[in-house]
Write a structure and sequence with these properties.
globular; 2 domains; binds nicotinamide-adenine-dinucleotide; Aldehyde Dehydrogenase, Chain A, domain 1; alpha/beta; 14 helices
């Protein structure tokens, strides 16, 4: 068992253990035992963080890009060095199996590397002039200003890493509010930046009551950008707050990803990839495949094989057993959400083939659950489950599969498996989502944009877009003389 660190807020250059609003318990979801406490920020502490970010912004944005690059790049190296320790704390806080926690931490270092490099690469452009009197038209991307970052618990290193590295690389100062359930993991990421030499006030961290914190920070005149990852409902609320002050806003929200499985797909590889990916992080992944649309000719075989594979997964407390393949859900609220969803099943809502009921405690364990033939209008097929539940429905024509896939307002990720080039082309063109992967599930690499459309939010993180999201466009046009 790893030691759990003391959770502290970072305001300016000070690490603060005492919250003006008291403290909140941190619970290991596998044992339901308290493992630590996190301070809850008061409005005065939030004001101090705002002042620190406001003061740091002109200095950090004026720092030569190459120096920003060196500091951010060094943070990535420190993250790699500390990955094993950080992954252990992540498992304690949210139950993620060790191999997945380690892969997330190491992968995030690569992501930080890429975004650090953007500081050196982004130089703006010159635009040809329209008259002899004009000398130059220069378009540059300027850092937008202090950015407020809100991140959830399901990827407590990867999601903050994208936001912090994109913002710092562009020259913004930041205040981060990590999820209440996983503060220490995210704090350990922040320590990499501080130890890499990040100047005082450029990165601040606060914890506490999410609604109070978001309202207070977003309303401040110091704040120029808001970036949120989490549910569609909260994303909408924060978008409204940002719009009130005409502040730039990026939202990475929920999804309900369809997977179209054609008859020509390589069956064995496809079903293996689907079962492994569906239950990664106990299904608590915004791009998790959740709506399996399977060609009728292979439907029965797919349901049987998928359910058999899902039942073989080893479930348990990953903080004491490295061979665990699926951990608990993040908190008791997720168990209630799964039980609620199960109560809605039966008849046209779908039949439970395997799983379906929470495991006896202690711990928030819910088994891999497979539901056959839910109607496209059922709760399971229309509301994001955000847990280890898969709905599988048959389709007769590829056009029908696309119609079901595109029938929701969500549009984060969509997947398809097919052996036909024509079908692959058709699906790539007609599926409606921010990210589409055909014959694989990997939509999150450092170099490519990650983001959704519709109720899944707007704006992208990672890739060049992950840098540009923290900038605004400026035109400088110069004439030889007054006209
Ligand atoms: P929740 O809404 O209680 O919390 C989700 C996250 O949102 C937490 O980190 C919380 O701190 C934050 N949050 C909540 N209210 C906030 C506010 N007013 N201001 C700022 N931040 C706020 O839900 P939950 O039960 O913990 O998680 C399930 C829901 O969250 C699902 O709808 C799921 O889609 C969504 N979620 C999405 C992602 C993602 O990666 N897109 C990650 C985690 C959770």
């Amino acid at each position: 068992m790893s030691a759990y660190p003391t959770v502290r807020m970072l305001i300016g250059s000070e690490w603060i253990e005492t919250g003006g609003e008291g403290a909140m318990p941190i619970i290991n979801p596998a044992s339901e035992k308290e493992i630590g406490r996190a301070p809850k920020a008061s409005k005065e502490q939030l004001d101090a963080a705002l002042a620190a970010a406001g003061e740091a912004f002109p200095k950090w944005s004026g720092t030569p890009a190459i120096e920003r690059f060196r500091i951010i790049r060094k943070a990535a190296d420190l993250l790699r060095e500390r990955a094993k320790t950080i992954a252990r704390v992540m498992t304690l806080e949210m139950g993620k199996p060790h191999a997945q926690a380690l892969a997330e931490t190491r992968g995030s270092a690569d992501l930080i590397d890429f975004l650090a490099e953007e500081a050196k690469r982004q130089g703006g452009r010159l635009v040809p002039v329209r008259s002899h009197n004009l000398l130059e038209q220069r378009v540059t991307q300027e850092p937008v200003g202090p950015a407020i970052l809100f991140t959830p618990w399901n990827f407590p290193i990867n999601l903050p890493a994208k936001k912090i590295a994109g913002a710092l690389s562009a020259g913004c100062s930041t205040i981060l509010k990590p999820a209440e359930t996983t503060p220490a993991t995210t704090q350990m990421l922040a320590e990499c930046f501080v130890d890499a030499g990040l100047p005082e006030g450029v990165l601040n961290i606060v914890y506490g009551d999410p609604a109070m914190i978001s309202e207070h920070l977003i309303a401040s005149d110091i704040t120029r950008k808001v970036s949120f990852t989490g549910s569609t409902a909260v994303g909408r609320q924060l978008g409204a707050l940002a719009a009130q002050g005409l502040k730039r806003y990026t939202s990475e929200l929920g999804g309900h990803a369809p997977v179209v499985i054609g008859e020509s797909a390589d069956f064995d590889r496809t079903v293996a990839a689907c079962a492994a990916t569906k239950f990664r992080n106990a299904g608590q992944v915004c791009v998790s495949p959740t709506r399996f649309l399977v060609a009728r000719g292979v439907y029965d075989k797919f349901v049987t094989e998928f359910a058999a594979r899902s039942q073989k997964l080893k479930i348990g407390d990953a903080s004491v057993d490295d061979s665990v393949e699926m951990g608990p859900l993040a908190h008791g609220g997720r168990i209630s959400a799964m039980q609620d969803l199960m109560a809605s099943l039966g008849g046209p809502e779908g039949e439970i083939v395997s799983g379906g009921a929470a495991l006896d405690g202690p711990g928030h364990f819910f088994p891999p659950t497979v539901v056959a033939s839910p109607s496209p209008s059922s709760r399971l097929m229309t509301e994001e489950p955000f847990g280890p539940v898969a709905g599988i429905v048959p389709y007769d024509t590829i056009e029908e599969a696309v119609e079901i896939a595109n029938s929701l307002r969500y549009g984060l990720a969509a997947y398809a498996f097919t052996g036909s080039l024509d079908e692959s082309h058709y699906l790539g063109n007609s599926l409606r989502a921010g990210m589409i992967a055909i014959n694989h599930f990997a939509v999150g690499s450092p170099e490519t944009p990650f983001g959704g459309i519709g109720d899944s939010g707007f704006g992208s993180e990672s890739g060049v877009e992950g840098y540009l999201g923290y900038t605004e466009t400026k035109l400088v046009t110069v004439a030889k003389s007054a006209p």
